[in-house]
Amino acid sequence: MRIPMTCCLCPFLVCLCFIQRCYGASHHVPTKVPSKNQTKLANGETEVHHRPKRGWIWNQFFVLEEHIGPDAQYVGKLHSNSDKGDGSVRYILSGEGAGTIFIIDEVTGDIHATKSLDRERKAHYVLHAQALDRNTEEALEPKSEFIIKVQDINDNAPKFPDGPFEATVPEMSEVGTSVLQVTATDSDDPTYGNSAKIVYSILQGQPYFSVDPKTGIIRTALPNMDREAREHYTVVIQAKDMAGQVGGLSGSTTINITLTDVNDNPPKFPQKNYQVLVLESAEVGTPVGKLKANDDDLGTNADIKYTIINSEGANMFSIATNRDTKEGIVSLKKPLNYERKKTYTLHIEGLNTHADPRFTYLGPFKDTATLKISVGDVDEAPVFSMDYYILDVYENSPSGTEVGTVTARDPDGDNKPVRYELDGKEEEESYFRIDAKSGVIRTTQPLDREDTPWHNITVVASEVGNPVLFSHVPVTVQVLDTNDNPPEVAADEEVIVCESSRPGQVIQTVRAVDKDDFANGQRFSFALPSQLPVNPNFTLKDNEDSTASIIARRRRFSHLTQELYELPIVVWDGGEPSLTGTSTLTLRVCPCQRHGRIRMCQGEAFLSSAGLSTGALIAILLCIIILLAIVVLFITLRRSKKEPLIISEEDIRENVVTYDDEGGGEEDTEAFDIVALRNPAAAEELKFRRDIRPEARSQCGFAHDRGSLV
Question: Is the pLDDT of residue 648 over 60?
């Protein structure tokens, strides 16, 4: 408890007052010069103005918190120099807590606290003091402000505001690995004593973990802590104030620490040998077995890749890892055949895919196991000796000619007999038949290569007595060519003979075509029929390259004399046996004009160059004729139209016509009726005709020989 400053200052103030009085009594000034507080009177005397001095005898006050005594706690005393101790001074207190928490003795100025205070709620109070004359209520001292501070005691224990805590640390961590830092708070005054000085200690969790007493950092205390042995730990940390001394307050919190996994365990197969049975009818891609290597680690640390490491197993089977179950799934890679191989041995390796180099000293992170696969026998359909057959037969061969043979056998051990037949769904079946026992295929009718050069059929083989088990094989039959079609001259375009042709001039080169295969039709020869007389107009030259040239033998061809000529040509091929054919060509004579090497008749050339057919030309001519008829009709109607004499109904008296003819005088009075000039309606009725000559003239009056008609 602190002693109020008034108790210490009172003796000092008494000494100061005593020195002042002594000094004033022992010093005399001969000549007084008025000071600022003096006034010189008329009689030579000086009046001294005494300025009141502030005489508050007090300083900052302190009060202990959490006071629980029966009496009010004494805080301090206020005193003014104006107070002579006769009770004439009254002290007044105002401000925070005045009258409720803090009371003052109006006579003595003693201040007391009537309630227990808590520094953590309010650390200080600001109050105002004033000294009054009890009789006049005048202020002896101006109002002054002072502070009462609440002095701290150790009444608050440390707390962990964020607890309890969750923390993780990798397993197998080194000693001293930081896990978590915890921090406690103390509401006491950190600037006064050790009330808020905290020291950390561990109450639970040893010998696995430790805590730094100053920072609160939790660290590992044991090496090689294995998650697979123990995963969870509970650690209790205590925070104690007063620097951990006896009597200090404390608080604690709990930290739940979990060891996280690292890849420190290699995979292990629970057994070294496995066995499975697979039927030979299993389809490719079918899973045939599975096995699993155990790994005590978690997540990616337990990922395993399975591999078949021997060629015997890798050629026939494949293995893949199921990500959900971590199992190795063995699947069939190629078809099985019990009769060829009855067992397979697979050496399978399981390897960690995420090895940690820190733990390689624990050994290789892989393991191996053996899987023996036994192939089960099933009753299978017959198997053909080939996947497909290509046979051939000459065209025009008689019915029953052998085409070829297909062969199938029962792959099972009992080797049952096989029955053959053609697939009845195909149209090609009508051309062939097959022997049910031997598999010999024969024709049922002569075949024509030019009609169908290839035939596709399907042969079905089944076990005798068990038609449910059957297999198919495609058979392609090629019809071979024989020289059974005579050649003929190709008539791709019309042969034109120009009127200007000269003897020896090549009219056109012709070639031959043959429906037979290229092997029998690649060489052709040409000649004119020998049984006919010599043609006086044309001759034929064999070019010995499977073409022939038609040559003119005379000149002066005229399409007016003879437009068409027929020329028979004999052509034979080089096949075995050789065949001969006669073709008759039609030659047209016409006037020609040259367009490069092409000769065309002039009329045909015009039509061809215009790109119009005869029907189109006729349609164009009809359109032109119709247009001409319309024009002629329009002109005729225009000429036959009569023009009116007067085209306006205006008064003729408003029109003046100038002329140069001499008037006839009285003889001309009957040429025109003057009334018609004055009446437009009458003019319409008296239109004179231009086709007849008027016999009489109307009477007309003239003002003079040359003038205007009125």
Answer: no
CA distance 473 to 383: 9
For 544-584, what is each residue's pLDDT tens digit?
888 999 999 988 888 888 889 989 999 988 777 788 888 88
The pTM assigned to this predicted structure is 0.46
Q: What is the mean pLDDT of residues 270-276?
A: 95
Phi, psi of 412, deg, nearest 5: -75, 170
Per-residue tokens: 454: 């290839």
Q: Which of 495, 479, 493, 406 is nearest to 447 (CA)?
A: 479
| Amino acid code (one letter) for 687 | K
Residue 508: both structure tokens together = 């056109």
How many angstroms separate the CA atoms of 683 and 650, rounded? 11
Burial of 191-228, coded b for 16+ CB within 10 Å and e otherwise, reads eeebbbbbbbebeebeeebbbeeeebebbbbeeebebe
State how far the Cα of 197 lies from the Cα of 188, in Å rounded to an integer.
9
Q: Strand 250-260 and strand 165-170: pairing?
A: parallel
- C-alpha to C-alpha distance for 412 and 213, rounded to whole angstroms: 84
Query: Using an 8 Å Cβ cutoff, are 227 and 261 in contact?
Result: yes
Model pLDDT, residue 611: 52
Distance CA(296)–CA(282), nearest Å, equals 35
| 533: preceding bond cis by omega (within 30 degrees) | no
Residue type for position 409: R
Share of the chain above pLDDT 70, in %: 77
- DSSP code per residue over 48-94: E--PPPP------EEEESS---SSPEEEEE---TT--SSS-EEEEEE
Cα separation, 388 vs 406, whole angstroms: 9
Cα→Cα distances 138→81, 87, 111, Å:
15, 15, 22
Q: Which residues contact 303 (CB under 8 A, 6 or more apart)?
A: 321, 326, 352, 353, 354
Here the tokens at position 139 are: 């202020």
Residue 587: C-alpha distances to residues 75, 499, 542 (Å): 152, 12, 18
Under DSSP, the state recorded for 20 is H
Q: Reduced to 3 states, what is the DSSP secondary structure of residue 214?
A: coil
Q: What is the pLDDT of residues 438-451, one digit of tens each?
A: 999 999 999 998 88
Pairing relation of β-strands 61-64 and 139-151?
A: parallel
What does the DSSP 8-state code read for residue 483? Answer: S
Higher pLDDT, 4 or 209: 209
Q: CA 208, CA 221: separation in Å to the nearest integer?
A: 5
Amino acid, res. 244: G
